[in-house]
Fold each of these.
Amino acid sequence: MSKDIIKFYPVDNGDTTLIKLRNNTTILFDCKIRSGEKNSDDYDIFDVKGDLLKTLEKRNNIPYLDMFALTHPDEDHCLGFEKHFYTGSPNDYNDKDKELIIVDELWVTPMVFTNNGVSNDDAKVIRKEARRRKKLYDENDEAKNDRGNRLIIVGYDGEDKLENILHYYPSDIVNEISGVKQDLFSFFIHAPLKADLVTGRAEKDKNTTSIVVQARFRINSDDEAAARLILGGDADHYNWEKILEKTEKHGNEEALKWDLFLAPHHCSWTYFNNVPIEEKEVNKIPQDYSVKIIKDYHLEGGQIIASSKLIKDNDDNPPHNQAKKEYIKNIDSKDDFISLAESPKPSKPEPVIFEVSSDGLNRIDDGESSTEDKLESAAAIGASSAVSGNWCKS
């Protein structure tokens, strides 16, 4: 494989983003793997697990990820983890575990280790697995660096209970995945910031503790990044205000540039201001710092990815129709706003895929090649729905 691949899975309100590097390193940010065949709009659900099994590398005929990052422990970011991912010592994997995916290196925030920070069953399974791996580090077990046992903490631990484990902090540049140095790929860590992890606000709103990173893809070691992707979980506008302030203060503006930007919290208004938007007149005004990250830091042709259900002109949040309009207002073209729920058509969404090559960033799925089908689907939904997307006729 000679090109890096970035794949955004259509999972309605939730995130599942796969990065497969040219050296076959595989990285997954969050997961939402659903059972059943239809979503809330009675449209087909894409088979995420089946596609992962076809895409991931195998070791001894066992599918694995080099790295899985849980941005924060909400259900829409880890649904299906217990059913589809292996937990426990990798040495105990056997035939009954067939098709369970091994995670070589697990990235979590300190929130995963708290009782109040974890409330759903899949997050509890991740917490149990993180604690299993933590014990190996605490006991300095030589197996701690084995594939399937590695653990990374992203963010500050206010009580130093995780001091034996490797931590990554905001402003760190990470170019090692599961113990292997990446010459042409790196992460810039933006968040979670210390203040968001150690205050009561974190306990009340796990979104504020989301891992936020910029992923950088290069073609040659001497080149600048050929593509930049920003992933921010469900971080809200308060988080982004501090991220912008901190990044500019320390001269790290390069870390805010983006070609692809995954709209936080599934295209929610929380990226731009408080909710509900109707509660106060001031809530209807996008914050300057949120707009600046979109308007001033997007590179030419930068594209917004909305990982959400269908965006309609109603009171839903997420996704939020006014947020979609605000994104489009501050990028180069409405065609650069991509709704995963609508590509290639609402009745049968499929992953949106980009490749990074010497030519730059290119979209390689067929989501732009079936306009007739898309318009037919839009008509079926009804004009009153005001469905969003990058294929509007006007």
Amino acid sequence: MELWFTELQEKGLRLGFKVKDVLFKGRSQYQEVCVYDTVTYGRALMIDDVVMTTEKDEFVYHEMLVHVPMMAHPRPERVLVIGGGDGGAIREVVKHPSVRFAHLVEIDQMVIEASRKYLPQISLALADPRVKITVGDGIEYLKTTSDRYDVIIVDSTDPVGAATGLFAEDFYRSVRNALRPGGIHVSQTESPWFYQELIGQIAGVFRKIFPVYSLYLATVPTYPGNMWSFSMGSLEHSGDIVAPDRYAALGCKYYTPELHAASMVLPKFVQDMIKEDPPRGVPGEAVERPHK
């Protein structure tokens, strides 16, 4: 008998995975956490029946989430990752030789434990001596911490439930306050095909809070619409300026300095989303659903 996992990605859109084995299934106080071994994408982390990451395509998301802001900063030494309990973002952060301290704040201990056991290629850097792991609410952490960082990366689920606050203006102001001079922040900001209103709203908020704002894109096959957006706010440094001499140390599979610049060349309908007064009728329909 064949076993399939089917994710309802959007209204009218499903993505199916043929499953070889269910490696882990548990429920924390926050959500259901599962790890499946799939035929096409290898091992996959699912939260509340939604794909968070898969072995086959995770490098696209994690490399673009991390290396664009890290390469735009001249010397990132202290880095904070909020969310991202699978460890993929931390793995990319500690590839940078300049990093002296990387701090992961993840709300769900079960995500960390399941990833360490069943997704070792993604989570391996959680054991790096430069990494500190705090299990707790990233929103509350930023409200109260006196620590300051060169780069702050938000690797969140969708703006539903507990993650809603990670897309709020007050949260982004807390992020800015926790940046060192010249600091850079990036958040994943969903699919331009389905979240155009959210992306436009975040663009407006970032322009108010950060002197420099950039939106960039990557192609992630298992995420809705395949096209995924990242919003970056900087206190000083332009997002499209990179240091190519630092690239060789990263060992990337997707990111390149050339792609860094190209990722900020946006399709017309995405440009329209982030205008000061975006027009109506751009593609997509904003919906509420959980996703990475």
